[in-house]
Amino acid sequence: xxxxxxxxxxxxxxxxxxxxxxxxxxxxxxxxxxxxxxxxxxxxxxxxxxxxxxxxxxxxxxxxxxxxxxxxxxxxxxxxxxxxxxxxxxxxxxxxxxxxxxxxxxxxxxxxxxxxxxxxxxxxxxxxxxxxxxxxxxxxxxxxxxxxxxxxxxxxxxxxxxxxxxxxxxxxxxxxxxxxxxxxxxxxxxxxxxxxxxxxxxxxxxxxxxxxxxxxxxxxxxxxxxxxxxxxxxxxxxxxxxxxxxxxxxxxxxxxxxxxxxxxxxxxxxxxxxxxxxxxxxxxxxxxxxxxxxxxxxxxxxxxxxxxxxxxxxxxxxxxxxxxxxxxxxxxxxxxxx
Length: 338
Known about the structure:
By secondary structure, the chain is mainly beta. The protein folds into two domains: 27-174, Immunoglobulins (Immunoglobulin-like, Sandwich); 182-306, Immunoglobulins (Immunoglobulin-like, Sandwich). 12% of the residues lie in helices and 44% in strands. It contains two helices and 19 strands. It has helices at residues 2-16, 310-333; strands spanning 27-28, 36-40, 56-60, 65-74, 80-92, 95-98, 111-113, 117-120, 125-133, 141-153, 161-174, 184-193, 199-207, 213-222, 230-234, 238-240, 245-251, 261-271, 275-285. The strands form four sheets. Strands 1, 3, 5, 6, 8, 10 and 11 form a seven-stranded mixed β-sheet that branches. Strands 14, 15, 16, 18 and 19 form a five-stranded antiparallel β-sheet that branches. It has a four-stranded antiparallel β-sheet with strand order 2-4-9-7, with no helix packed on it. Helix 1 (2-16) runs antiparallel to helix 2 (310-333). The two termini are 22 Å apart.
């Protein structure tokens, strides 16, 4: 009896758990006694006590192009490959806030480096030219960014990567002429079922900026019946005019096979790949079809990169095993008459 109960618990644990083995690389601070440095070479002549003298501060007209030089230096004891790139930033309530690497804003799309990376021996430095090319249709107003210098080496042992980054702030204001920048907000989302039975998730948006926006995006469905998930699902690109409201539609392929019930819908909407808005909310899909397959939606399980056949197969095997164990338990408690 004890062995049978242990076996049943083991089967239950296989059905109810998932193991993920995607570990992020370790990151540690730069070694003491040295690091990567960066400074502005074209600092304006003025009050030496003003910290903004060390920043790139510009007031430009639409269509203008300027160049500014920064000096990148390696003061570590080892040779370093240093990446130089633009990163997004914002200023809110007087606080300068930097974003994670890979996050863009409109200003970063106007910036480029003549040397995206440099290899510097210990004590060596290199000059990098940063170009600001403001489009002719650039919106008026202030924007912020950072010119980052990030060094990394693989000398930490055991696959550990040592990394550090330093930067020069950028404050750039575009003069009047083109109106305010693009902007939009998300009002809510819901599910819809078409006459053919196809289910879509529809997101209501409002253009609150000074120009039309072309909105794309992706949808993730999680916390569905049985813990199922699906996505990413692309949106139909939607243009919304200034001051208007619109609907961004995510058609769900093979939705007749979609298990009915409540799901959590999480959307990420983008304009020009840099203006991003996120929203999450529950949606309820109707009961339709008998299947548990999401077709081209991909995996039904909680682990990414897993075949959509895996969970049904594991479920079938587990069900068979539990059934066999239950039959053995019944026979144990009800021996044949002899």
